[in-house]
Write a structure and sequence with these properties.
The chain is an alpha/beta fold. The chain has 4 domains: 249 residues, no CATH class; 96 residues, 2-Layer Sandwich (Histidine-containing Protein, Chain: A); 71 residues, Histidine-containing Protein, Chain: A, CATH 3.30.1340; 66 residues, Histidine-containing Protein, Chain: A (2-Layer Sandwich). It is built from 16 helices and 11 strands. The longest helix has 26 residues. The chain is elongated and about 95 Å long. It starts with 20 loop residues before the first helix and ends with a strand.
């Protein structure tokens, strides 16, 4: 008997090490160590080394991004980094997140300036006036060196999804906002920085409130960091462009802006949760199709020239990620999606075997997926960890209470949480019922189904029974489905006209006595 821990799924760790406390602590340690070292060195240089001080200040802003790349690369290697960057750089998230990212800061800062002027304040002249080329160039300068590029891949690309794996987006945004504000602390002691012109406490409050805005936007960005990059750039640029806000001593305009920002954050925290439908979502009836290999973690779907336009790898990655976000039983933030030549790889860590199975099914629902490889590792949380003896007892109990299974027909072996089922039953539906019953138990990290089917009629009888069953179904033209029988293995080929017909055909084959395996190579002809 094969070892119960052996699986067709490579279980090396990749992407999104999020959800692991020690990895998050390593991220924070690296981010703070890098940034604070650069900034403390900048403070020690003083005004005599202006250029060097400016370079060190800019380098310090890359601490969170460097920390994220370091941790993910260390745990997930090159494949983990590619999947993570692919998720962060998704651009097909719709226009709305980018529009909101540009104009939300203006909606806060502009009214504050107008009210300040109406109350007799003198905001002064905007630096944009008469210097439009400089203002446009400043957008790129802020994006690349002013914080967004160095910070957002770490804060919103890694830290926020990590926290969200444990908490909701609201609590995650508040916690990250406090950490984000404290991370800026050395900048208050460096002359010429934005923070050196601001009081410490209002800045910390604004960091928490602004983090809520970032979190709310991230929930609508499907894991992409691009809207966060635009929002961070817009915040810094509008704060520079709107006159009077950064003038030291201009407390009224600053307080007005902070009050409006807090009001916006409170409104977003109270915003009712809703699910956003992903783009190009696969039809729900595609759920009825499942791969016909019992224990394989990879499968291939035959393609037909008439099944519609082919998606690019980028489009397919976007659609699979969106489907994972849509599936409520899956923590999509912890799963990376990599696509090459239509072959989808799911990588990362999940809390249970059931969640891993649901993630695989969600990816299979997306049209255009040619093949799929699963590299999801089941990493049980401490409360879910159980001894093999406890798991074996639970498995035996649930099998005993499953009405479709004959008593005492199935033997159970558990090693390191991996359950191996053996024995003999008469039908495939009983074999499948055993796996379905065990999958959702706490502590199970995987299931190997080695249950045999005892009935073994002749190949001719099997072929006749399947063809007769196909004729009784609702399939439009069952004559286009070819049946080949080799021992107890059945191969279905030919063409069907829908996913429902495909599922009906495979179900009919499995329902024939003596069939141990069904190989589905049918093509879809719409």
């Amino acid at each position: 008997m094969a070892s119960p821990r052996r699986s067709t799924v490579p279980l090396h760790p990749v992407i999104d090490v999020i959800g692991r406390w020690n990895h998050c602590m390593a991220f924070l340690a690296i981010a703070f160590a890098w940034s604070w070292s650069c900034w403390l060195l900048t403070a020690s240089l003083g005004a005599r080394f202006t250029v060097a001080a400016g370079v060190m200040t800019a380098l310090g802003s890359f601490g969170p991004g460097i920390a994220a790349v370091t941790v993910i690369g260390w745990v997930g290697g090159g494949r983990g980094l590619r999947a993570w960057f692919g998720r962060c750089l998704q651009w097909r998230v719709g226009v709305r997140p980018f529009v909101l990212a540009v104009f939300l800061p203006l909606a806060v800062l502009a009214p504050a300036a107008l009210v300040h002027a109406a109350l007799g304040g003198r905001p002064g002249t905007s630096p944009v006036a008469g210097h439009l080329p400089m203002a446009a160039a400043n957008v790129a300068l802020i994006l690349l060196l002013g914080g967004p590029t160095g910070e957002e891949f770490g804060w919103r690309g890694y830290a926020w999804p990590a926290l969200r794996a444990w908490h909701g987006w609201r609590a995650s945004s508040l916690i990250l906002g406090a950490v984000w504000g404290l991370w800026h602390l050395p900048l208050f002691f460096i002359a010429g920085t934005l923070q050196s012109r601001l009081p410490l406490l209002p800045f910390l409050v604004s960091a928490v409130a602004l983090s809520v805005v970032f979190g709310w936007l991230s929930t609508r960005s499907r894991g992409s960091v691009l809207p966060a990059l635009v929002l961070h750039t817009a915040v810094n640029w509008w704060a520079w462009a709107i006159p009077g806000l950064l003038v030291y001593g201009n407390h009224r305009q600053m307080v007005l802006a902070l009050a409006l920002l807090m009001l916006l954050a409170i409104s977003l925290l109270a915003w009712p949760a809703r699910r956003v439908a992903p783009e190009r979502r696969a039809p729900r009836r595609a759920q009825t199709h499942r791969p016909r290999t019992c224990n394989g973690a990879s499968w291939k779907l035959p393609q037909h020239p008439g099944t519609g336009p082919m998606k690019t790898d980028s489009q397919l990655q976007q659609d699979v990620s969106a489907e994972l976000e849509w599936e409520p039983s899956v923590q999509a933030a912890r799963i990376g999606v990599e696509v090459k030549d239509g072959v989808v790889t799911l990588a990362g860590e999940v809390d249970s075997y059931a969640q891993k199975w649901n993630a695989e099914r969600a990816a299979q629902r997306v049209s255009g997926v040619k093949a799929m490889t699963t590299e999801l590792k089941v990493q049980l949380a401490s409360p879910s960890t159980r001894t093999d003896g406890d798991i074996a007892e639970s498995v035996e109990n649930v099998l005993e209470w499953t009405s479709s299974l004959p008593a005492g027909a199935i033997q159970v072996m558990v090693e390191a949480g991996w359950v191996t089922l053996s024995g003999d039953v008469d039908w495939q539906y009983q074999r499948q019922a055993a796996t379905d019953s065990v999958r959702n138990l706490w502590g199970v990290t995987g299931v190997s189904n080695q249950i045999g089917i005892t009935l073994a009629p002749t190949a001719t009888a099997v072929k006749f029974d399947i063809e007769a069953a196909l004729k009784r179904t609702s399939i439009a033209d069952a004559r286009h489905i070819l049946v080949a029988v080799h021992g107890s293995d059945v191969t279905l080929s030919g063409t069907v006209h829908s996913w429902d017909e495909r599922a009906t055909a495979t179900h009919s084959a499995w329902g024939t006595p003596g069939v141990r395996n069904v190989i589905d190579v049918m093509t879809l002809a719409y």
